[in-house]
């Protein structure tokens, strides 16, 4: 049975636990990723002639497994595995597996490396079949590990990784997916880090493209080279070295030019000019636009990108917001770039997205096509769209989609995006700071003085809820009534606002229509999902599914289609993704498996196995019960209700007679033995009849609880056995219906229905807020205050403080 992606990830991350504590995350990532790399190339290329990657004899993962437990395991890995692989494939800066300072010495090193190798013996990590979904799982696993490493590495060492979400945005906006591509199509990243951004662009292409990357840090360049291979791009060329001082990709004496260039360079690099002849750059990068400041390298990287693009090239670069408005030499460069027409767009991103810094950044999009005819720059302020993820922020799926859709369509969206004419930019001295052109601030909620003085809700505030009244025009008349010109009063009690909204015929019709709208999509989608077969591509499945859902809800009133889209993507990440990968590997098989908890000895051998029952990932037990054993579950629920009722009655009895003079006051512990003992003690005592009655009642309730508990346990055991026995009898059609209808689409239906509740709740809260704000006019407040003051003065006189009252007057 195939392993779930989430379980694969967790098992790989467990490999990191074997090293954690001995070194920084930025170091132990090298060991874990090298092992993943060796496992992959061993499965895929070992023994294959003319393979793009050479696995020398004796240097495969199997050979590494043979070294487990050996006293010189670290030294042997270096000599027999790492060195031959590095020499055969020109891999540099490989980690030292015999470094006692990082891995420990003696027995500690042996155990640590042995356990780490064992992690990669997982049967799910078998890439020998060379299936596309296997590569896909591997690529995602690598991304998972890189994200975790970057998070743990902290500010100073997390720069080797560009967040996958930002990489996806760049990959989709540079336009590589909009044209026909081939191996002649070139993509370049001058500061490629571990290569994730390059690979995201390659993924968006229609066919394999040629990848080029340069990375200053040698160890990270090695990671990038391995990353290319792990993602089935073994021909990618990754070079170590300082791109600005010593660019490796040249065409004679000039820079090599590319179709697409993307980059996430180090922010505000203060040492960029080291080794660079700024005044007489041999590559002419600063001739046309000007030289960047010696201590501010952002434009140095951007100009390198511009110079590295073909005349029809497109590119994108992640830079700090300062590049948009800083003056001096940078202001001059910015003006020249705008006048040249090279800047196609700018996308402002949320703060705290990147692992090396918390400052907000932007994506500067470069497009040399039709540059002279460009009359404006498309600006997007996407700074408000994100989710919290531990110490960092992350773009959600809906944020990515909204950015890309808006950028591709070049549509003006209030408070989010607009096309800004170059003439307007020139009037602002070529300052591109986004707030100058897009007011993304939430408008201040204005106070109406007349409303506060004379009472009544201003009509202007009610008019601002026009999107609701457009759908339910009669609802406005139901909720409000005229007070005076331009002011209204609530026509219903405040406590009844939500009910008045939800039960209004127009809102009820809206809900019914939205339910029917989802049902239509659900009907079309269910058949497509049930047609999934082994070998399907889960990423393609979710892409098509999500796009169809987004399109289905486009332009629907009162609801944001991107919110609906996010519900699907969240459920995909939480549950549906694992299910689809199981179906891709094994088909529609609902096979329960035992839950075995293993306890190990210090040497890693199994000491004890504990059976914790069974589970079925594709068709969980609750689905089976709801479909086939509802009556049995209802009977158990009734028993549980009886048990809860008896428990409450018992607790109430103990509470009632547990006080200082209560019958249970002297009990150190109330249980069957102590209660029975006390009954024997007072047997025949006529003065203790009331106590005996209470104790007898306690014993009766306790016996009832014991009986109910036994009956519940027996019924649950019978149900558990019946459900388990039902799995082998399921037809494929039943499995499909359980998964698609009862699990996937039912969960999505519930989430989308929750959006309807959110709409009614939002309107309720706003109406109630306005009603509360203007509920009491100033004269009414003064009258109420006067009444209260009179009452206080009367109390003071009665208490003998008449003089104090007189003095106050």
UniProtKB/TrEMBL annotation:
This is site-specific DNA-methyltransferase (adenine-specific). Keywords: Coiled coil, Methyltransferase, Restriction system, S-adenosyl-L-methionine, Transferase. SUPFAM superfamilies: S-adenosyl-L-methionine-dependent methyltransferases. It catalyses: a 2'-deoxyadenosine in DNA + S-adenosyl-L-methionine = an N(6)-methyl-2'-deoxyadenosine in DNA + S-adenosyl-L-homocysteine + H(+). PROSITE patterns: N6_MTASE. Belongs to the N(4)/N(6)-methyltransferase family. It comes from Rhodoblastus acidophilus. Its EC number is 2.1.1.72. PANTHER family: SLR6095 PROTEIN, TYPE I RESTRICTION ENZYME MJAVIII METHYLASE SUBUNIT. InterPro entries: D12N6_MeTrfase_N (IPR022749), DNA_Adenine_Mtase (IPR051537), DNA_methylase_A-5 (IPR003356), DNA_methylase_N6_adenine_CS (IPR002052), SAM-dependent_MTases_sf (IPR029063), T1MK-like_N_sf (IPR038333).
